[in-house]
Amino acid sequence: MSGRLAVWFAVVTLGALSTACRRPPRPGDPVPGLSKAERARFDSGRVAFDNIFTPATGLGPLFNADGCAECHEEPVAGGAGDEIERHAAAFHPTPPAGTRPCDELVALGGPVFQQRVTPALRAAVGIDSEPVPPEATAIAGRSSPDIFGFGLLDAVPDSEILSRADPDDRDHDGISGRPNRFFDGRVGRFGRKALVPTLREFNDGATAAEQGVTNPVALDEGTFGGRPFPPGTDPTPEPEISRETIDLVDFFVRLLAPPSPLKLNRQARQGRAAFDSIGCAACHVAALRTGDSPIPALAHRTVAAYTDLLLHDMGPELADICLANATPSEFRTEPLMGVRLMTRFLHDGRATTLEQAIELHNGEAARARERFRTLTAEERAAVVAFLKTL
């Protein structure tokens, strides 16, 4: 090969490799820009995320799933699931002095009431799921969301979330989003009611709440209806997984990339314009900006999240449980990144199409829904076509 030809071949080859490296992330890929060591740790985290627990390795005695990937699996690990969990709480609009309106029923096993039990617990107490106590004023279904892009949402500064809050609707646009706050006052962002402030806490709590598997941060196995588990039903000593394992799971979840939006065709461009004009973008904010992060790939990035991470009143038809400061009818604006990969929508999966999900919006979203209804059939189809690019 001549020198000139060798140079040409090298340039073409490097160009092809560069193009391949720049391809948009596919579902299940990490965010771009990781170091070699970070990518290796991400891959190890995927293995930990895919692990299946058994009673011998800490599962239960109460649980909803035997591993993270059981609930976050479609189309790949980290995606949505078809499970519908059962949550419950007690809401008292005018509580006694010194108490909060919302009782998450923590002392009685809530707010997550697990729907599966280990054979040992079934043999000891004769149940197939954790009973919801009569103190509950509402029971909620909760679908399993995809967790793509959660590390970027975690890196969005509180100040960006708070800058969009308008609890008193001072601009009189009918939208009065407000932050939920954790029990210690920190701004929440994760969960359907935006209770959990950080992804670390969200992930640490999930193993205990969903698999009944304790870790060094979440050592409490919980109770059975407020009572300790019978002897012999929880034989694995705490913590049931190591700090190293839960760190790997957290790293994997933290670095999962949001699915890249698809290229817009003419119909989808029209749908994007309609999405903005009818008011959907007032809550489903197209882009958020991350701040500082110890992981450079997450720092100072723009993420097409389509959420403001605030609570909005969605009306009585969707209302279910309270959670901290969130009333029964308040929900966090659902991120729409990756919505094209989902088959069920809203917090409890009741909607089977995107158009049905829009139709079920009410409360602060009622004006946008009514404007959607006034669109022509062609324009409504365009809005759905746009959403299917996200």
Question: What's the arrangement of secondary structure elements?
Answer:
Elements: H1 3-21, H2 36-49, E1 62-63, H3 68-71, E2 84-91, E3 102-103, E4 116-117, H4 119-125, E5 138-143, H5 150-154, H6 158-162, H7 199-211, H8 243-255, H9 266-277, E6 288-289, E7 302-303, E8 311-313, E9 330-332, H10 354-359, H11 366-374, H12 377-387
Antiparallel strand pairs: 1-4, 2-3, 2-5, 6-7, 8-9
Helix pairs in contact: 2-8, 7-8, 9-12
Structural features, described:
This protein is 30% helix and 8% strand. With 390 residues, the chain is an alpha+beta fold. The protein has a domain at 42-146 and 195-255. Helix 2 (36-49) crosses helix 8 (243-255). The longest helix has 19 residues, at 3-21.
Number of helices: 12
Report the major sheet.
Answer: 3 strands, antiparallel
Mean pLDDT across every amino acid position: 93
Total beta-strand segments:
9
- The helix fraction, in percent, is 25-40%
Query: What is the strand content?
Result: 5-15%
The outline comes out as: globular
Radius of gyration: 23 Å
Low-confidence stretches: 1-20
